[in-house]
């Protein structure tokens, strides 16, 4: 059995720091203790912030040539590749996720995302002439009007438990390529894997303070990272409730805030594509157990075929194998902790109280007495006002709803406080794309999906602010400066 990563301490300002206290990291697959890790104190976190501030203000990273930043970050990624086996083992142990998910959806996809982000950054202009008409330049006595994209400064990157490594790649690489100094704070539920970034920063000689990784049991350090005046930007992925708190904490110092928050996405099946529902529904829970903010947990189908679809989805879900990562046949693992499992149970019960029916699942899988497992669950809901259709569940629970026509399908999909993602299936591409354009979400997949360094993601409404990935995701970590140049008279 592969050992997990060896380090158990925060990496702050170029040094590994022993915490005064420690906490246990639990394996949600069997409720065992993976290991104990040192917890950073608020003073430790502030030291990381101030070191980031100092490194940025001195220009030790921001002022070196972009090509050199790219070289160092590629070397950092090369070092992470040398940690392949223990890094994957760490993700599996601390999150209970299937090996294939850790191996491909986090490790391999993260490295590809990171390397492509570097290439994308190098292909983009970061200083160019502003599109000012010549007569305006002449009238103003100007020789040039220049627009520069400069680093924001000190960035707090706060990542979630369900995709600790892929989310870290998504935040760290564009922020560092842009010349920022970054403090990474992973979820205390899955802190071990993120320490790989500290090891890589040390191995390539990243200047002290440019990248720190702080792990803590509580939230005091996280609150410092969102409120400290030395921090210029907060990039957070997590729940909408925590996102609201971060906005309040960042407001007094008017920080830039990028938030990728909760979702209640819909997958809409046009009448000519209902036969695709089994595969689309299975993708919601396979590997992630529904623990994904973009999970399309509302399945919208023509009302006259709803009963048929409920049975199809139930049959597909009954074929899923639930179990620990050690079970090579398992396609779905546990939820992250007891609270997550209890939330699923609460919302399923509320769905029934409001007229919904449990077509499959709803409880603990047989034979799995330890670990935070929930059966793949299919709900037959009467309408979109049901709690299961409105609340983000973050578990292996999908709801089937019927629509009268495509206008009604769009209305139902948009009837949500969230707007993170969506899916449309249809053989008639013109009709399917027309529906996609009407959805109030940050990303919509029509018949296929794309996760790429070149394509942005982000939310409408209470699903967040700003964008990650793509050119917009790089610009999120930059300020825009205008320079007007004229001769001295």
How would you sum up this structure, described in words?
Strands 14-15-16-13-12-18-19 form a 7-stranded mixed beta sheet, with helices on both faces. The longest helix has 25 residues, at 99-123. The chain is built from 16 helices and 22 strands. β7, α6 (164-177) and β8 form a beta-alpha-beta unit. The protein has 2 domains: 10-261 and 463-483, Aldehyde Dehydrogenase, Chain A, domain 1 (3-Layer(aba) Sandwich); 266-452, Aldehyde Dehydrogenase, Chain A, domain 2. It has helices spanning 42-57, 66-82, 84-95, 99-123, 134-140, 164-177, 195-204, 220-227, 240-250, 277-285, 306-318, 338-353, 387-390, 406-414, 429-438, 470-475, and strands at 10-12, 15-17, 21-27, 32-39, 127-129, 144-151, 154-158, 181-185, 211-213, 233-237, 256-260, 266-269, 298-302, 357-360, 377-380, 397-403, 418-419, 422-425, 444-446, 460-461, 464-465, 478-485. Helix content is 38%, strand content 20%. The mean pLDDT is 97. With 489 residues, it is of the alpha/beta class. GO terms for molecular function: aldehyde dehydrogenase (NAD+) activity. Belongs to the aldehyde dehydrogenase family. Keywords: Oxidoreductase.
């Amino acid at each position: 059995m592969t050992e997990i990563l060896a380090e158990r301490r925060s990496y702050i300002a170029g040094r590994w720091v022993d915490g005064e206290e420690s906490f246990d990291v639990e394996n949600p697959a069997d409720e065992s203790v993976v290991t104990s890790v040192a917890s950073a104190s608020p003073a430790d976190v502030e030291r990381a912030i101030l070191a980031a501030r100092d490194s940025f203000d001195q220009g030790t990273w921001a002022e070196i040539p972009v090509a050199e930043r790219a070289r160092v970050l590629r070397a950092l990624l090369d070092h992470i590749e040398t940690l392949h086996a223990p890094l994957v083992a760490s993700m599996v142990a601390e999150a209970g996720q299937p090996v294939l998910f850790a191996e491909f959806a986090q490790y391999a996809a993260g490295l590809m995302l990171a390397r492509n982000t570097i290439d994308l950054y190098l292909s983009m202009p970061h200083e160019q002439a502003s599109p000012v008409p010549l007569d305006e330049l002449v009238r103003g006595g100007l020789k040039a009007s220049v627009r520069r994209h400069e680093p924001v400064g000190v960035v707090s990157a706060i990542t979630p438990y369900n995709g600790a490594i892929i989310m870290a790649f998504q935040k760290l690489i564009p922020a560092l390529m842009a010349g920022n100094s970054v403090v990474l704070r992973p979820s205390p539920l899955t802190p071990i894997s993120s320490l790989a970034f500290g090891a890589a920063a040390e191995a390539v000689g990243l200047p002290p303070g440019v990248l720190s990784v702080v792990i803590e049991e509580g939230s005091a350090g996280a609150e410092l990272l969102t409120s400290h005046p030395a921090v210029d930007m907060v990039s957070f992925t997590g729940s909408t409730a925590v996102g609201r708190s971060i906005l309040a904490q960042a407001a007094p110092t008017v920080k830039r805030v990028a938030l990728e928050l909760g979702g209640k996405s819909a997958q809409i099946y046009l009448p000519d594509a209902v036969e695709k529902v089994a595969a689309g529904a299975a993708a919601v829970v396979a590997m992630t157990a529904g623990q994904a903010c973009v999970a399309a947990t509302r399945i919208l189908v023509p009302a006259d075929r709803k009963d048929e679809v409920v049975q199809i989805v139930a049959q597909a879900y009954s074929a899923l194998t639930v179990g620990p990562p050690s079970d090579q046949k398992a396609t779905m693992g546990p939820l992250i902790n007891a609270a997550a499992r209890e939330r699923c149970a609460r919302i399923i019960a509320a769905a029934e109280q409001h007229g919904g029916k449990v077509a499959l699942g709803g409880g603990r899988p047989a034979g799995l007495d330890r670990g935070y497992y929930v059966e793949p669950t299919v709900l037959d809901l009467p309408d979109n006002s049901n709690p299961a259709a409105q609340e983000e569940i973050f578990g292996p629970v999908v709801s089937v709803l019927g629509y009268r026509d495509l206008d009604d399908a769009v209305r139902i999909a948009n009837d949500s406080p969230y707007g993170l993602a969506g899916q449309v299936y249809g053989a008639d591409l013109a009709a399917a794309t027309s529906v996609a354009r009407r959805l109030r979400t940050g990303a919509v997949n029509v018949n296929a999906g794309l996760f790429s360094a070149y394509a942005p993601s982000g939310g409408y409404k209470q699903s967040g602010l700003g964008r990650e990935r793509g050119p917009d995701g790089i610009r999120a970590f930059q300020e825009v400066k205008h320079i007007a140049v004229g001769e001295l008279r």
